[in-house]
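User: Reviewer 2 asked us to show a designed sequence for the structure in our supplementary figure. I'm pasting the structure tokens here. Could you produce the per-position amino acids so we can include them in the response letter?
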């Protein structure tokens, strides 16, 4: 079984199935009580699906004791399609940054007009999370370029922690907005997606700093992408939707290549030679 194909497909299919189950589950929400109707079969089906995905990913990422211990052996990929996916993820992250800054400025204006009704931490965290998404998006773009060319880049190494840092502030901002809500089912999938995707990007960057955790990285990336697709059923605002899409696309792209470098066949020499300049190719041979 080609794990680099099967597991990302499973994550995407599980996320899509969970998306439709979540949409059906939301029909059992009772606005007058603020609760979900008890005994809804869609709730049980959704939780069962999430548990099955966790179990499947935990089992299927096992099987190889050693893995790549550096960024390029782990994520190096000569395929242009991989660079395209990461470029799309980086641009989506930049768009999320612009949307977050816009939302933060709007919230700041409301706070100025009614300072007693809002806490400054709400617009402040929104502005910070939006602002950090901009270097985070650049970091994803440069890491994709670095992996495609097979050459370490100082700027990419500096910016590589920013996706995880932006995710931490995004998590704080989201919890600040929803933390007083007693019904976890209302926002729990969205919160779990942010946590998993933030940790996935933390471990992706960790390969550049001598802390490789290949199987943990793959599990967090795949599970985070699946839960992110499920949470899109809640119809989040534009910032959260763009950030979820950007982080999940980036996580899936990195996970696919890591799985290929862990379990799959070697990259074709033709692709490597097309990517490398002639003098570098001759030096390698």
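Assistant: Here is a per-position design you can include in the supplement:
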């Amino acid at each position: 079984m080609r794990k680099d194909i099967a597991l990302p497909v499973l994550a995407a299919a599980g996320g899509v199935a969970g998306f439709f189950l979540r949409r059906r589950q939301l029909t059992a929400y009772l606005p007058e009580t603020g609760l979900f109707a008890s005994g809804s079969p869609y709730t049980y089906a959704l939780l069962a699906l999430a548990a099955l995905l966790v179990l499947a990913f935990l089992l299927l990422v096992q099987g190889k004791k050693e893995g790549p211990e550096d960024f390029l052996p782990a994520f190096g990929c000569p395929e242009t399609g991989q660079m395209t996916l990461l470029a799309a993820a980086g641009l989506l992250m930049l768009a999320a940054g612009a949307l977050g800054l816009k939302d933060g400025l709007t919230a700041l204006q409301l706070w100025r007009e009614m300072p007693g009704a809002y806490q400054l931490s709400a617009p402040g965290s929104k502005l910070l999370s939006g602002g950090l998404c901009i270097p985070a998006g650049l970091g994803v773009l440069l890491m994709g370029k670095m992996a495609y060319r097979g050459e370490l880049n100082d700027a990419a190494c500096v910016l590589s922690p920013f996706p995880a840092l932006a995710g931490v502030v995004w998590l704080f901002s989201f919890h600040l907005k929803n933390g007083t809500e007693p019904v976890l089912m209302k926002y729990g999938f969205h919160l779990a997606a942010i946590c998993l995707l933030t940790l996935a990007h933390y471990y992706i960057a960790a390969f550049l700093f001598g802390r490789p955790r290949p199987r943990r990285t793959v599990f967090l990336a795949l599970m985070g992408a699946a839960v992110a697709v499920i949470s899109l059923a809640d119809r989040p605002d534009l910032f959260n939707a763009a950030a979820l899409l950007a982080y999940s696309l980036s996580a899936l792209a990195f996970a696919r290549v890591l799985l290929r470098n862990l379990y799959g066949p070697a990259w074709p020499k033709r692709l490597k030679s097309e990517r490398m300049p002639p003098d570098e190719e001759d030096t390698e041979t």
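For the response letter, you might also mention the following. The longest strand covers residues 29-30. The two ends are 31 Å apart (CA to CA).
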